[in-house]
Write a structure and sequence with these properties.
single chain; 377 residues; alpha/beta; eight-stranded mixed beta sheet; six-stranded parallel beta sheet; 11 helices; 16 strands; 28% helix; 20% strand; elongated
Length: 377
């Protein structure tokens, strides 16, 4: 018997994922990012849905994720964004015909040694640093990089990648435009040597907001799962029409009365200003619902919003349902997503992230990993 420690559930809408993918452009121009277990949505179910939608390639985080795709029969190009982290992984990447990212000369040497003198070849993706300052070759490295690759005929660059640190910031557009040109310049000698080398710079924000950043391949991540990086800002329309793929629900455990002046939950951070009706919901910080949302967020019950009151506990949280007389034990509370009544709106992951002062990516990854996932196909 499977041991499940929470009755909450993540609902993953795969048709919404496919619609998001279709909105981002022609399949051959998209390198969908499904690393970190597809941002908590499930690596293999997401890959399956994108394969059916026409995906020609995938970007994962690790060699292990890439091998998982190969074991399931996927033959598309699979780029491992973290490269390979030990000698054995370089050999595994070659055996599985993955395309690991090479970000330094040590990586390049390990890639060649990973072939163990066999007659095999290894396709690689070269990581270029054009402004992120995190990983990659810079302009001064290019001559030595070309010389090193000339001595490694079994290692073939098929892609050049870089990453945009602030494409989601309209106020920093000048930097992003400079970065696009810097990337273009760095790629020129590489493409002279390997004319078919594909260029990939744009993340979600670059894909949606800066068409000139798309080059041959763009690498959307958050947009696949419904995130608009420009929400609430002047470029909001550039990411309009995306649909959130993940929702989070949990059952009501009990409905009880709170008297005026009575406090609630740990730390007594909430005191009832009048007689109230409280719903106790079976979800808490153990299932990645942040404690920082105590007394800040809302949930959806019967299509209506109900404010979270009191401190969020490990496996329970409370909401004020005084305005919802029909709420009862066993009802479904939607902590994220769900169908809202007319005039109401669902709670989004961006709203929760803002209130908790974290990133939407963080909530999606954690919620999807610790809550049982139910797939809509």
């Amino acid at each position: 018997m499977t041991c499940i420690f929470t009755p909450s559930a993540c609902h993953i809408d795969l048709p919404a994922l496919q619609r998001n993918f279709a909105r981002l452009g022609a399949p051959e121009t998209i390198l969908p990012v499904i690393k970190s277990d597809a941002y908590g949505h499930g690596l293999l179910p997401v890959a399956r849905a994108l394969d059916r939608a026409g995906a020609r390639q995938f970007a994962v985080g690790t060699v292990s994720e890439g091998i998982s795709l190969r074991d399931e029969g996927y033959r598309q190009r699979v780029v491992t964004l973290m490269g390979a982290l030990c000698p054995n992984e370089w050999t595994q990447a070659a055996d599985a015909h993955l395309t690991p990212v090479v970000a330094c000369f040590e990586d390049l040497q390990n890639a060649a040694e990973g072939l163990n003198g066999r007659g095999d070849t290894l396709d690689i993706a070269l990581k270029l640093d054009t402004g992120m300052g995190r990983l990659g070759f810079d302009a001064a490295d290019i001559p030595a990089l070309l010389n090193a690759l000339d001595r490694m005929p079994q290692v073939t660059p098929v892609m050049a990648l870089s990453h945009m640190p602030s494409a989601d910031m309209p106020e920093d557009e000048a930097f992003s435009l400079e970065q696009i040109e810097r990337f273009r310049t760095l790629c020129e000698p590489l493409r002279q040597r390997w004319p078919g080398l594909a260029r990939s710079l744009a993340n979600t924000a670059g894909t949606l907001g800066l068409p000139q950043a798309r080059f041959e391949l763009c690498r959307p991540g958050l947009a696949l799962y419904g995130g608009n990086p420009f929400a609430g800002g002047p470029w909001e329309e550039r990411g309009a029409g995306l649909e959130w793929v993940m929702s989070l629900s949990a059952p009501v455990m009990q409905v009880r009365q709170l008297r005026a002046g009575q406090s609630l939950s740990y730390g007594r951070t909430f005191t009832a200003p009048h007689d109230m009706t409280i719903a106790v919901i079976a979800c808490g910080y153990a299932t990645a619902y942040p404690r920082a949302l105590s007394n800040k967020a809302a949930v959806l019950l019967h299509g209506r919003r109900a404010p979270v009151v009191g401190r969020v506990c490990m496996s329970m949280m409370m909401a004020d349902v005084s305005h919802l007389p029909d709420v009862s034990r066993g009802d479904t509370a939607w902590l994220m997503g769900g169908e809202a009544a007319p005039g109401e709106r669902p709670v989004t992951v961006c709203e929760l992230a803002r209130l908790a002062d974290v990133l939407p990516y963080e909530l999606l990854c954690l919620m999807g990993e610790v809550n049982p996932r139910q797939y809509i196909v």
